[in-house]
Structure to design on (340 residues):
């Protein structure tokens, strides 16, 4: 039973062993006020849509007429929302002729990328996320057996390395797995891919392309599927995420299925995948990808399908299609690509 002593205010607690130091752990009041003001400016759906449009625009900027097309509100309303974002410092503006052009303030670019590429997808997944089971209770014998079965296929790799890669592959997937029922089979696929990359000959005539985004749940999966569809076995295609999601984005699954890919799953970025690649394409996560000599790097500014409408996903797919075709024309000049 609760007594009056159980609900005493904190100011009445005089336990000598309790010496809270709140100021040393909490954000300062002034800083919290500034951050809250900025977050309040962002807490409006249309402003977030406009911000994402500007962040992924090929030129890194947009005018009012571009942004007005995102919604059916009037141009003055759009201008008002842009003014709010400008007043808190997120956007800068420049008048050229009769139009005002908006760009993300350089100091906010990293924060905006984190908001759109990491925080927003996490917020969308949270209501549907199920607790990861972490795998089988007695997983060690299963992983040992997997390593034993894989080892003969990679005679040039020491058995200890095979075991390590198998366990790392399982652990990397288990951290974010939504369902553990297929975790073992996915870990086997991922470990086999990593071992193949580890033993890849540098002189191979088949180019290898690695697509990397944040979650490996949308852009990189679509790009990999498009390249595989057009090039088949003439290019080895990989995809990975700097912070992989639990599953491929729901809205992307249909687009992948239309490209013939039905077994995609998010995978963490590994050094062996980068080392084995001839070309690394980053989409929103270039800073986390190791830069190694002899590898060609490109950063593609592409919208995130996790936040897009069906029409937006179709537009992102079309953008990626154009980029993949351009890359293939460079890698395989003799490849005949189908007309769109």
């Amino acid at each position: 039973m609760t007594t009056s002593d159980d609900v005493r205010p904190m100011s009445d607690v005089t336990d000598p062993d309790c010496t809270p130091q709140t100021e040393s752990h909490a954000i300062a009041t002034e800083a919290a006020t500034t951050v809250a003001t900025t977050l309040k400016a962002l807490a409006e759906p249309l402003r977030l849509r406009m911000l994402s449009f500007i962040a992924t625009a090929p030129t890194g900027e947009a005018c009012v007429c571009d942004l007005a097309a995102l919604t059916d509100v009037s141009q003055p309303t759009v201008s008002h929302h842009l003014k709010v974002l400008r007043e808190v410092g997120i956007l800068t503006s420049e008048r050229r002729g009769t139009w005002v052009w908006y760009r993300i303030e350089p100091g906010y670019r990293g924060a905006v990328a984190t908001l759109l590429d990491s925080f927003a997808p996490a917020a969308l997944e949270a209501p549907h996320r199920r607790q990861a089971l972490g795998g089988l209770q007695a997983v060690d014998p299963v992983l040992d057996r997997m390593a034993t079965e894989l080892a003969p296929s990679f005679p040039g790799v020491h058995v200890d390395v095979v075991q390590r890669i198998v366990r790392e592959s399982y652990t990397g997937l288990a951290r974010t797995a939504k369902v553990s029922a297929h975790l073992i089979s996915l870990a086997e696929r991922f470990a086999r891919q990593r071992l193949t990359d580890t033993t890849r000959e540098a002189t191979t005539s088949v180019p290898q392309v690695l697509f990397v985004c944040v979650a490996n749940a949308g852009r990189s999966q679509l790009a990999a599927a498009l390249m595989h569809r057009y090039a088949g076995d003439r290019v080895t295609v990989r995809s990975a995420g700097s912070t992989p999601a639990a599953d491929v984005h729901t809205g992307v699954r249909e687009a992948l299925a239309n490209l013939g890919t039905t077994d995609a799953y998010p995978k963490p970025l590994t050094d062996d995948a980068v080392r084995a690649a001839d070309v690394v394409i980053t989409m929103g996560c270039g800073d986390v990808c190791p830069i190694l000599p002899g590898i060609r790097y490109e950063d593609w500014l592409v919208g995130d399908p996790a936040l897009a409408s069906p029409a937006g996903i179709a537009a992102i797919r079309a953008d990626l299609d154009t980029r993949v075709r351009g890359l293939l024309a460079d890698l395989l000049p003799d490849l005949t690509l189908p007309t769109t």
Summary: The chain has a mean pLDDT of 85. Residues 229 and 260 are 8 Å apart (CA to CA). DSSP finds 13 helices and seven strands in the chain.
